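Appendix B. Raw example, untouched.
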Amino acid sequence: MKITEIRPVIVDAFRTNFVFVRVLTDAGISGVGEGTLEMRERAVAAMIEEAGRDLIGADPFATDAHVEMMSRESYWRTGAVVRSAISALEAAMLDIKGKALGVPAYQLLGGAHRTRVRCYANAWFTGARTPDEFAAKADAALAMGFRALKWDPFGSAYLQMDREARNRTVAIVRRVRDAVGPDVELLIEGHGRLDVPTAIAMAQELAPFRPYCFEEPIPPENIDAMAEVRARSPIPIATGERLYEPTRFAELLAKQAVDILQPDVCHVGGLGEAKRIAMMAHTAFKPVAPHNPMGPIGNAMTLQLAAAIPNFLMLETMATDIPWRKALVDEDLTLEDGWMEIPQKPGLGIDFDEAECARHPYKPYDLRHYRGTLTDIRPKDAPPFFKVKRSA
């Protein structure tokens, strides 16, 4: 079997653009992957084409060798754009291999540790601004079956926060805790907003509400600084979504800068690299909760990874998505009491419709995180992309 063609596709997704790829072979089997990188989508699509030139005529089964080759041949070896392009291509090759062998992709990663995963909700808070609005949105997420909720309560903060902003953040978290009760997990998202003293102070102020973790409290590039925050935070620290090299995850572990690792399969070079990162964490008895707010193929990739690692913790799951997501892909997912079954179809178990993708062409989007508009993450009519089922 030989690779004959590589087609990157960019699709408008309201807050960003999905970056998909289709890899075709002379055996009539094609595979799909995703390398969505917010605000750098066209760069990733171009990199998929550049890296893919060396794959034409190659055997898609030699996945690890191709990942190494693409890293080597980029010369610069790393970077978010390069690694995201490799992630998409690697996943597509694993999809081809799984289809050819008639097995889910997780079987190619060593087999399943589980058949379903516990989920936490992101994007459940769309449009919320006030504590009461966040509480009402939290109630709606619980009605869908979620028992763990993640959100960023820091408004437009960057590095420092004045007392008014701190009080507003505390009020939002307090109101959500009061709304959901003591048994629902709350995950606090930082988006790398804060400097070290502010992150430590906010961790201490939020600790009485018993957050499950504080995600990326400071910018990700200084691991020594993250270690300082972790040493002084009463809340466990999660990070890794903006790291893409296995060596950086090794550094996080060596410097005791993290409690929960969050590699993103769309950024670290694919499922194989993500599993290697997870196994490094496993040697330190640290859990992995993959970063997973991208698109439908990225979600399919992450579900396959979740099956294949022993230290998987929870799956980040967007509570809703663009109304046209269901037309883009042939997903068939069910959320039952906050758990999602791992698909058992060959490969990644998903495909996309190129004609439908063409109906939603690329649109440029700006980062909302520091403008006070982060909660406008979805259109008002955004539906769940999965079926919701509740036990009797």
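End of appendix B.
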